[in-house]
Write a structure and sequence with these properties.
Blueprint lengths: L18 E9 L4 E22 L3 E6 L9 E3 L9 E18 L7 E4 L11 E4 L21 E9 L3 E4 L22 H4 L4 E7 L11 E4 L1 E7 L2 E6 L4 H8 L3 H12 L8 E4 L8 E2 L4 E4 L11 H9 L7 E3 L5 H20 L1 H21 L25 H17 L1 H15 L2 E3 L1 H11 L3 H4 L2 H6 L13 H13 L15 H9 L7 H11 L7 H13 L6 H10 L3 H13 L4 H7 L4 H8 L1
Parallel strand pairs: 1-8, 13-14, 14-16, 17-18
Antiparallel strand pairs: 1-2, 2-5, 3-5, 4-5, 6-7, 7-11, 8-10, 9-11, 12-13, 15-16
Helix pairs in contact: 3-4, 3-5, 4-5, 5-6, 5-7, 6-7, 6-13, 7-8, 12-13, 13-15, 15-16, 15-17
Length: 600
């Protein structure tokens, strides 16, 4: 017996489940879900079946046809990363019905009371299962090596509705029926007045971390032949999102032209409340987005381009463990920039590469005391993947693929990519499988590129390439001139979007005079920008340069936005300046344990 993933109890001798049917009763008053999980194996199995759980209360485990009990046990100790081991003792069963309930402390469920929503009258809940949090929503083999087809029956209070990473089997909520909860709750609760039911089912096998569900008072707008934008029905977000993402279909077609057919049918988007911790989450058929990507000028579609690219690289082909995370994110960053190049032009794509190059160097510096996590393929035994999240798998992975493209030429690399996707679609693979496929299809590549240095070496390889483009070099030059006391003129920034400002601000010295930073803001109002990338970059600079008059805006931002990258940037700037009286004041009301977890 041996685990197949450093973050999962899943054992190499166990069959990987193929289907999971969930029955979920959502209770907002208790912030819990009472549920059943019907797990199907590919063949009958005898022996201990090991499942991952975290903060779940297991009521019973039954054979679904005979309802006879199946022996089970929960480990007496709880691993701080992997959670609690659930062991089922099977005797020839190929399906198992588990009755359980979640905890208010579930790491994958974010419960919002009405005051935290746009409507102020209805609650909201959403999941974030990546990377290892599906186990806190349902017991499973919570490893990307496992791929499941999901069906989900959701019971929730009217007038709320739900969306999921699967198509609805009927368009509108219906009344609940007796005897359909599979014992998740009594029929009295399941069929109580004011409750309704929605059902979802997907034919696509996906890893557990791509399960997604959200429920609230939702509205929707159609923005393309296969795209609906969802958000809270009340408030301005839905209309702004529909306008921001009006060009999504053009990006989908660009992706199909580059990487082959879009396999998933729908490409819908849900803009979540501000507490959502990521820019976007690539849940198939239903991408989750932070409202911070709505910038009012359509440039927020950049994040959508990344999540769209996951439809080929990440969702269609998935890293086998989080140690191979670059296979998801490096490929997707490359694919995203190819889509952007088609839709928005080469200069825009080059600008994205430039911003990424800056981020790569910053994160390599961040891990200077633990260079293991600057490798593409790294060891994560005993490491929480949330604690080592960085731009490195994205940007070093991109640089590796870009290096291969430069070596063999774009036309040949495009052929290679399409063959790679067609060969491994709906599979989970590791780095070694990719390298073997690369060598087989590009003979002699290992003589031209030091593959081991790129994959297993630390830091940034010498043959990585800083982008060269007119706009990139101009912005970097203007940043250097700021050090000499010169601000860009209004003519020079007349056509800048948020990305140009982001690159400019990130290249400014963190030791600039406070008066310089204040003067820059007085001219261009960066602290008031509707583009959160620009606003946060400016506030980070203002903290580093000791501009006390912006601390009120910093505090407001920390309270308004849950996007983890923004929190890490701002808290890091505050912590690094914590020797100063002003920064100590701002941090005294915060938990240092929480702050340190955020900035890691």
């Amino acid at each position: 017996m041996a685990p197949i993933d450093p973050h999962s109890y899943t054992d190499s001798t166990n069959p990987l489940a193929t289907h999971l049917s969930l029955t979920l009763f959502i209770s907002f008053p208790t912030s819990t879900i009472s549920a059943t999980a019907l797990l199907t194996l590919p063949t009958p199995f005898s022996g201990p079946l090991l499942l991952d759980t975290r903060s779940l209360s297991i009521s019973s485990v039954l054979h679904p046809q005979t309802l006879t009990p199946i022996p089970f046990s929960l480990s007496p100790t709880i691993d701080p990363i992997k959670g609690q081991l659930l062991t089922l003792t099977l005797t020839g069963q190929d399906s198992i019905l588990i009755t359980y309930s979640t905890s208010p402390d579930s790491s994958a469920l974010q419960w919002l009371n009405p005051s935290q929503t746009a409507s102020k009258t209805h609650p909201f809940v959403y999941t974030q299962c990546h990377p290892i949090h599906a186990r806190s929503v349902f017991p499973c083999q919570d490893t990307p090596a496992a791929r499941l087809r999901f069906s989900t029956l959701v019971n929730l209070p009217h007038p709320l509705s739900s969306v999921a990473s699967a198509p609805k089997t009927f368009p509108d909520p219906r009344p609940p029926n007796p005897n359909e909860s599979r014992g998740a709750v009594s029929d009295d609760l399941w069929c109580a007045p004011g409750r309704c039911v929605e059902e979802f089912s997907s034919e696509f096998p996906v890893p557990p971390y791509l399960f997604a569900l959200a429920a609230g008072r939702l509205g929707s707008r159609e923005v393309g032949p296969r795209t609906m934008v969802y958000a809270e029905a009340e408030g301005a977000v839905l209309g702004a999102a529909a306008k921001e993402f009006a060009g999504v279909e053009e990006m989908v077609r660009a992706g199909e032209g580059l990487f082959g057919p879009y396999e998933w049918g729908r490409f819908d988007l849900l803009v979540l409340p501000p507490s959502f911790p990521y820019g976007g989450m690539e849940n198939p058929l239903m991408v989750f987005l932070t409202p911070t990507v709505i910038r009012g000028d359509g440039s927020g579609a950049q994040v959508v381009a990344h999540e769209l690219a996951h439809s080929w690289t990440g969702n269609l082909i998935t890293n086998k463990t989080n140690e191979d995370f670059w296979l998801n994110e490096g490929f997707t960053t490359y694919a995203e920039r190819r889509i952007v190049e088609v839709v928005q032009g080469e200069e825009r794509a080059a600008l994205n590469v430039g911003i990424g190059w800056k981020g790569l160097n910053a994160d390599v510096e961040r891990f200077k005391d633990n260079m293991e996590f600057t490798k593409l393929k790294n060891k994560q035994e005993g490491v929480d993947p949330d604690d080592i999240y960085s731009r490195i798998p994205y940007e070093k992975g991109f640089q590796f693929l870009w290096r291969i493209e430069r070596q063999i030429g774009r036309a040949k690399f495009d052929e290679f990519l399409k063959k790679y996707i067609a060969t491994f679609k709906f599979q989970s693979i590791n780095t070694e499988m990719f390298i073997e496929f690369l060598k087989e299809n590009v003979p002699g590549i290992e003589k031209d590129i030091d593959l081991d240095q790129w994959v297993y070496g630390t830091g940034i390889p010498q043959d990585a390439l800083e982008p060269v483009s007119n706009i990139y070099m101009k912005i970097v030059s203007l940043s250097n001139e700021f050090k000499l006391g010169r601000m860009p003129t209004e003519d020079e920034v007349a056509y800048w979007s948020g990305q140009e400002w982001e690159l400019y601000l990130e290249n400014l010295p963190k030791t600039a005079e406070a008066s310089q930073v204040t003067a820059l803001d007085a001219r261009y109002h960066l602290s008031e920008s509707k583009d959160w990338e620009v606003k946060v970059a400016f506030l980070q600079l203002s903290i580093s340069c000791g501009c006390k008059n912006y601390f009120g805006e910093v505090e407001k931002t920390l309270k308004e936005v849950g996007r983890r990258r923004y929190l890490r940037l701002l808290y890091t700037a505050l912590v690094q300046g914590a020797g100063k009286e002003e920064e100590r004041y701002w941090l005294k009301g915060y938990s240092w344990r929480l702050v340190n977890r955020i900035i890691q």
